[in-house]
């Protein structure tokens, strides 16, 4: 069997295949395919570079946001601590003011009680003096008779009132 026998179908398959390969080479299909593959590889490389850049930017943004979150947390913690200190100071001031107010009110109440005691003592003395004077007046009136006794009693009572009050 001869390979170049035109009656053999295998020969025509070989000729068709050789012609096909020749046409592919003549029209530079491998160069076009290679160029298409190179273009596609370049596009993929560019996409990978862009993805890498985006990833780096995303990581930078993430670290920036994490840093800002830590700073915000520290600031919030310092605000809370400051608020606690202010609340404690306010509570201490309130306690001190309450103690001072209670002391003032206690002193005022003690002064009012002292004034009331003094006034009551004065009223008791006044009533005692008036009662003693009335009793002395009656005793002298009954024992010392006449106008001389009465004038003496009245004068003594007036003198006594001036000395007791």
End-to-end separation: 169 Å
Main sheet summary:
none
Total of domains: 1
User: Shape, please?
Assistant: rod-shaped
Number of helices: 3
Mean pLDDT: 88
DSSP summary, beta strand count: 0
Q: From the helix content, strand content and strand pairing, which structural class follows?
A: mainly alpha
Radius of gyration: 63 Å
What order do the SSEs take from the amino end to the carboxyl end, as H and E? Answer: HHH
Poorly predicted segments: none
Observed structural traits:
mainly alpha; 165 residues
Question: How do the strands and helices of this protein lay out in sequence?
Answer:
Blueprint: H1 9-26, H2 29-143, H3 146-164
Helix pairs in contact: 2-3
Please, could you describe this protein's structure?
This protein has three helices and no strands. The longest helix is centred in the middle third of the chain and has 115 residues, at 29-143. 0% of the residues are buried. The chain has helices at 9-26, 29-143, 146-164. Helix 2 packs antiparallel against helix 3. It has one domain (9-164). With 165 residues, the protein is mainly α. 92% of the residues lie in helices and 0% in strands.
A few lines on this structure:
By secondary structure, the protein is mostly helical. The protein has helices at 9-26, 29-143, 146-164.
């Amino acid at each position: 069997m001869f390979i170049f026998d035109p009656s053999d179908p295998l020969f025509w398959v070989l000729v068709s295949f050789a012609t096909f390969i020749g046409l592919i080479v003549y029209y530079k299909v491998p160069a076009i395919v290679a160029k298409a593959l190179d273009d596609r590889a370049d596009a993929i490389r560019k996409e990978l570079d862009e993805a890498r850049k985006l990833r780096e930017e995303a990581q930078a943004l993430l670290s920036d946001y994490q840093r800002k979150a830590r700073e915000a947390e520290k600031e919030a913690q310092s605000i809370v601590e400051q608020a606690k200190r202010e609340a404690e100071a306010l509570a201490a001031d309130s306690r001190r003011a309450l103690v001072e107010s209670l002391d003032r009110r206690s002193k005022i109440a003690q002064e009012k009680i002292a004034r009331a005691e003094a006034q009551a003592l004065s009223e008791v003395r006044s009533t005692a003096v008036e009662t003693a004077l009335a009793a002395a007046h009656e005793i002298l009136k009954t024992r010392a008779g006449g106008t001389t006794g009465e004038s003496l009693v009245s004068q003594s009572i007036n003198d006594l009132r001036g000395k007791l009050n």
